[in-house]
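User: Can you predict the 3D structure for this chain?
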Amino acid sequence: MATSEPLTASAAAAATLALLEGQRPATAPEQVPAAVSLPTVTVTAAPTSDQRKRTPLWIWGAALAAAAIVLLGGKGGLISNFTYLQLSLVLVYAIAVLGLNLLTGFNGQISLGHGAFFAVGAYTAAILIDRYDVSYLLALPAAALVCFVAGFLFGLPALRLEGHYLALATFALATTVPQMLKYRHIEGLTGGVQGINLIKPDAPFGVALSSDQWMYLVVLAMAVLMFWLARNLLDSRPGRALMAVRDQPLAASTMGIDIARTKAITFGISALYVGVAGALHAIIFEFVSPDSFRFDLSVALLVGAVVGGIASLPGALIGGLFVQVIDKYADALTKMLTESVHLPLELEPWTIYGVLLIALMYVMPGGVAGGLAGLARRWKMRAP
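Assistant: Here is the predicted structure, written as structure tokens:
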């Protein structure tokens, strides 16, 4: 009896690309027969700053509640330092998924190489902190700037590519950067295959918090800031231009939007977000090495964006949670399934990605955030 091969990272990436291609809107208007009259289109003015929706109070309340977790006992409290580390990683991956979502969900460019920008941000912060004794609070904006420039410069030549061709170009980026970090002529800076060891910073001013608790607060503050900036960007004129390029590039160009510039800047902003996430990851993990940023990371971020919800800010948080949970439990879950079902082959962790993606395509095509939003709308319609 023939047995199926385990799902690999490439297969998971292909399934994700197929799902994204199915969700992407048409890029060119369909031809309308002459006998069919076109509907009247009403163009409304852009909302002013007073007309834009304010951030709901419950979001700020949730952020304050998340920050108040550290009050449950200080050092050695009710929540272990390991749990604080896991919560920090969820927020770090949420920032990275948000950056990829800005590029893929809101601008329509597919990337399989954002793990490379994650690595650039991590190494920038690690080199500044370890080699030049720069404060970690200053290393974060430096990593953001370096990644923005790198993303913008990469986005310029990639503007001629679309769809799967762009995905292949970014795939090459994801596989090249980890090897470049091992280059022997820059080992004195990057540490080569050995990487760089860091020391997690302690809480300042003698505050009675462990280093894991303090870094959790730092990561939480950065996550709130990055999500707030993303929301304000999407509500602004550049944000509407960004989404117009995704929906109808021909119409956007006719309206005077510089498509090439918009795509390149969006690529830079997306890389900036992922770079900040990489810098935070390096600080809280206290270590960076080339093997920590393999192609698997890029696929995990893309899958997290799809599972959470493409073109959804709350979906980025769900995607970050998914990436962390899968990274921590996928291997144990596949081994448990293999032993319990007595399969003739050993499943790989990527099998979980494939099964979840296939199920999501049928149950929640818009991701978890889109599915929950749809359920909420149905509940409101049925409510008296």
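The beta strands are 196-197, 287-288. The first helix runs from residue 9 to 23.
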